[in-house]
Amino acid sequence: MDMIRTDWTVAQVAELFRLPLHELLFRAHSVHRAHFDPAEVQISTLMSIKTGGCPEDCGYCPQSVHFNTGLTPEALVPLAAVVDAARAARDRGATRFCMGAAYRNPKPGQLAKITDMVRAVHDLGLETCATLGMLTREQAESLRDAGLDYYNHNLDTSEAFYPQVITTRTYADRLDTLKTVRDAGLKVCCGGIIGLGEGDQDRIELLHTLATLPEHPESVPVNQLVQVEGTPLEREKSVDPLTFVRVIAVARILMPRSRVRLSAGRTDMSDELQALCFFAGANSIFYGEQLLTTPNPATDRDLELLARLGLRPAAPPLPA
Ligand code: SAM
Ligand code: DTB
Ligand code: SF4
Question: Based on C-alpha coordinates, what's the Rg of the chain?
Answer without folding.
Answer: 18
